[in-house]
Specification:
Layout (H helix, E strand, L loop, with lengths): L1 H43 L1 H9 L11 H10 L5 H30 L4 H54 L4 H9 L6 H14 L5 H11 L3 H16 L3 H55 L9 H27 L4
Helix pairs in contact: 1-2, 2-4, 3-5, 4-5, 5-6, 5-9, 5-10, 6-7, 7-8, 8-9, 9-10, 10-11
């Protein structure tokens, strides 16, 4: 009796061990497949991958980025707030780690600095890189929202005129926005109209509710006024043709004023560019060349030759990039 119980116990233990070893390859394969899927997802959708990786651990940091949620909604970026913040945190952590290792190794092995100084410089550069990364992620939605705002306001006279023509032909409000969604895809108003059509067709909104949601998310106050006025006219049963025609004329006058201001600003910017980047750089180059010929020293530890190289390879390109950024910020899209 005891031997039979012992045999049955040994048999059960053997079966358990056999099942455990037979299941382990499949479980390992499943883990490998999950990792492969995660890597593929990270290559195609980094926001989703970052949220799956550190989203739960970084939930305490989300309140620090609460202002970013409104900027994301107004920028037109189809990215979830938590996923975007997770991407920013993951990117900053990766950049901090890689820059610290790279700078420390470079200073220690190439420039032969002491290990302590190399580590200190590496920590400083890595913290600076992380701060710049977070600031870039924080500022990018605001930049996108400002670009969308300018694009919408540039097209407002033509958008209102197009809508007034359709309203004068007796087209219903929902079909007006469907027609706007089918115009040139490069226009900002076309993407906004496609969102309205999506809310109506996929999410079951009526056209008024979809327009109210769009008015809350648009970064342009003028476009918001146009939508809210259009909603009021539809609700009250007023003349949409007169309202849209008056808005088109008003926006056309504002566009003419904006173009006049842009021409004045462009003239001032051109004078600054010629004075600083052309005449100023030539005067500085001639001064440094004369100082080098006479054997005069530079400014402190910087000799004239080094200052000339800094001006040529750093000063002029950075100054030109700054002027291009300013020109892009003040110039109309079309």
């Amino acid at each position: 009796m005891t031997e039979s119980k012992l045999r049955r116990g040994l048999k059960r233990a053997y079966i358990r061990v056999k099942n455990a070893f037979s299941k382990s390859p499949s479980s390992d394969n499943s883990k490998v497949s999950r990792w492969n899927q995660s890597l593929k997802l990270g290559a195609t959708k980094p926001q989703v991958f970052a949220y799956q990786l550190i989203g739960g651990r970084s939930s305490r940091l989300f309140p620090l980025f609460k202002d970013l949620d409104a900027s994301l909604k107004k920028s037109g970026m189809k990215t979830n707030f938590k996923a975007y913040v997770s991407t920013a945190i993951l990117a900053s952590l990766l950049l901090v780690t890689s820059s610290m290792i790279a700078v420390t190794a470079l200073l220690f092995f190439v420039f032969n600095l002491s290990l302590v100084l190399a580590i200190l410089f590496g920590v400083g550069v890595s913290l600076l890189a992380g701060a710049v990364t977070v600031i870039a992620f924080y500022s990018y939605p605001s930049y996108r929202a400002d670009s969308l705002k300018r694009a919408l306001e540039e097209d407002l006279p033509f958008t209102a005129g197009y809508m007034s023509i359709l309203a004068g032909a007796g087209v219903p409000p929902d079909f007006i926005w469907r027609s706007l969604a089918q115009v040139d895809a490069s226009l900002a108003v076309s993407s906004v109209a496609r969102n309205v059509v999506r809310d109506v067709e996929l999410f079951g909104f009526d056209v008024i509710s979809a327009l109210e949601t769009t008015a809350l998310r648009t970064p342009s106050e003028r476009f918001k006024e146009l939508i809210e006025g259009f909603i009021s006219v539809v609700h009250s049963g007023g003349s949409a043709v007169k309202y849209l025609r008056n808005r088109s004329q008003q926006y056309m006058k504002l566009k003419q004023i904006a173009l006049k201001r842009f021409s004045d600003s462009l003239a001032v910017l051109a004078e600054f560019y010629v004075t600083l980047m052309v005449a100023g750089s030539l005067i500085f180059v001639v001064m440094l060349a004369v100082m080098a010929m006479l054997g005069g020293g530079g400014f402190g530890p910087l000799d004239s030759g080094l200052m000339l190289q800094l001006l040529t390879y750093l000063g002029l390109p950075i100054g030109s990039i700054v002027f291009l950024v300013i020109l892009d910020m003040i110039s109309p899209k079309r």
